[in-house]
Amino acid sequence: MRARADALMAKLTAKLEATSDAKKRLAIQTKMLRLLPKCTPAPPQPALQVGAGKAAPGPASNAAGSASGGGTAGFQFRIQRTPKAAIVPAAGTAALGGPEEAARRRLRQQRFGDAGAAGAEGDDQADAALVDSGGLGTCEALEKEYLRLTSLPRACEVRPPAVLAAALRLVKAKWLQNPDYAAASEQLKSIRQVVHGNPAEFEAYGLLYTQATSAARNTLAMELGRVPEHLLSHPFVRHAMDVCAAARSGNYSRFIALYDGAPRMSPYIMDRLLGKMRLLALQSTVMAYKPLPVPLEHVAVQLGLETEEEAAALATQLGAVVDLGAGCLDTRASAAQPLGPPRPPA
């Protein structure tokens, strides 16, 4: 199944490279995004070393990829992106503000005054074009580095709604393959910069991620202290605060209820806490009902699952004893052994 998806991705890549029409390129990119979760995950790439004497990799197209040479390593989905470390000043540049640099700038201004005026006129025309289009730009990059704006952006730097929608689908697809919060956060902030998304939504994601990853108990308090006061009453932020409170107090029933009604992309982050809370729910159920058997239907509700089969499979995986014939959890036998995820073989 994955081999067929890899082969189809390679064909779409070749077709994308041979197409110059913007609409056709966007349609091909959309197909590639839908196909990406079915492809074989590519191995993690080594970090880019700048200034170490190694040549930097060449630029890739916006959604161009190629199959890695390992045969079974899968299809590598590459996105055009300029790393921050690649933007470095030229060697030998004089110190800014020095008298020699000031004289050099004056001489350059006299020599290229006409060219500078023409460039400024071009910038004005680009800015006017962006305003006249209602802020709809022409950039086709699916991934774009987040930079704080210090001036009005040009049309070539702004992504239109169709590209933004494809970029959001890419963020979700890559999160499912490798939940890298830093990379996803940067791309979401870059998307929000254009669409003016809900700030409370991203504050809520920050609280949830802090609860899911931080070992120190005061880290969440520090993160909460950074949330603007006027956003504390927003439903997204309130939901995140309730999730954090339920996780910290071990209230698995409340956590499961909040998970079922989580807004937007909150469930993706709550997944990091879900396994721990389900284990706590199973342990509590065993200790509360021992030695009585517990119907699997009730166990499914406690674990936040839909079917008795799912409850039986998860309980067995965590070390509990299930009587499939009677359709119940054997609390007496389950309490006689430690519950938890299976340990890797030594």
TrEMBL record:
InterPro entries membership: SAC3/GANP/THP3 (IPR045107), SAC3/GANP/THP3_conserved (IPR005062)
UniProt region (Disordered), positions on chain: 44-67
GO cellular component terms, A-Z: nucleus
Domain of life: Eukaryota
Gene3D superfamilies, alphabetized: 1.25.40.990
Record field: compositional bias (Low complexity): 51-66
Cited Pfam families: SAC3_GANP (PF03399)
Name of the protein in its database record: SAC3/GANP/THP3 conserved domain-containing protein
Domain SAC3/GANP/THP3 conserved: 194-320
